[in-house]
Design goal:
The protein is built from 9 helices and 7 strands, in the order βαβαβαβαβααβαααβ. It has helices at residues 18-29, 41-52, 73-82, 106-134, 155-171, 175-178, 195-208, 212-221, 231-241, and strands at 9-13, 33-38, 63-67, 88-91, 137-142, 182-189, 253-256.
Length: 265
């Protein structure tokens, strides 16, 4: 299927690896020009080279990058100094650490909200009106399955990402955006085979005294698909939400977790 987005410009955050890279890869393969953003310059440059060498990338699809912390004002200024207008924006920032809410002071909360709620809002604020004026726009926020099924030790993520979810539910339905072919949706990943998941499993194994393999098997056994997701699968879902065919989907929370969430809604 031709998604009809070849030649569009996309900003993909946290794109040097994991789910962000999966999204960037899927968009590049659709012929989209992509600007990758991540904090680590070495990993970012490696990601760019991998995308440029991808045999599935149409020759006309350019791949650029900027090393910046998108959660800061300075980082966002650096990004928009390179390019001010985007047709597609994929927001993504690393989740805050787990823990006990009794140990989190105001500074810790503000940092979590700033990265996982306010940063996506700032990126939307900077881009959606231009999208509306041009008659096309797609925003995909990478959030978490914890928005649907909160996890007790991930209170920072539960709170910050739920705030973003509520904001998107309102702004996505404004007539100024929805009638101008600008959609805003959230992608909620479950357990995907990424470095972050590996680190989480390793930490869990250390706490429990169990082998990493045993913890991994227990995690996959709790997923009906009996496996972790692949970043390429997540990227494909993102690319579809950015497509012309997805123009009637907005304000939604799309859960991709291999069936792990047990609820109906």
């Amino acid at each position: 299927m031709d998604f009809g987005i070849a030649g569009r410009w996309a900003l993909v955050c946290g794109a040097s690896k994991g789910l962000g890279f999966g999204c960037a890869q899927a968009l590049v393969r659709e012929g989209v020009h992509v600007l990758l953003v991540a904090r680590g310059e070495q990993a970012l440059l490696a990601a760019v080279e991998k995308l440029r060498a991808d045999p599935a990338r149409p020759a006309q699809a350019s791949v650029q990058c900027v090393a910046a912390d998108i959660t800061t004002v300075q980082g966002r200024e650096k990004v928009f100094a390179m390019r001010s207008e985007f047709d597609i924006v994929v927001t993504n920032a690393g989740g805050p650490p787990p823990g006990d809410f009794r140990n989190w002071d105001r500074e810790v909360w503000i940092k979590a909200v700033d990265a996982n709620m306010l940063t996506p809002i700032e990126l939307m604020k900077a881009t959606v009106d231009g999208m509306a004026a041009r008659g096309f726009g797609r925003v995909v926020n990478i959030t978490s399955s914890a928005v649907k099924a909160p996890i007790d030790i991930l209170g920072l993520s539960n709170g910050a990402r739920s705030g973003l979810t509520g904001f998107v539910a309102g702004v996505a339905r404004t007539a100024k955006l929805a009638s101008a072919n600008v959609t805003i949706n959230n992608l909620l990943p479950g357990s995907y085979d990424t470095d972050r998941l590996k680190a989480t499993i390793a930490a869990g194994a250390q706490r429990s005294g169990q082998p990493v393999q045993a913890v991994t098997q227990a995690r996959t056994a709790a997923i009906p698909a009996r496996r972790f997701g692949k970043p390429e699968e997540f990227g494909a879902a993102c690319a579809f939400l950015c497509s012309e065919q997805a123009s009637y989907i907005t304000g939604q929370n799309i859960l991709t977790d291999g069936g792990a969430y047990p609820g109906t809604y």
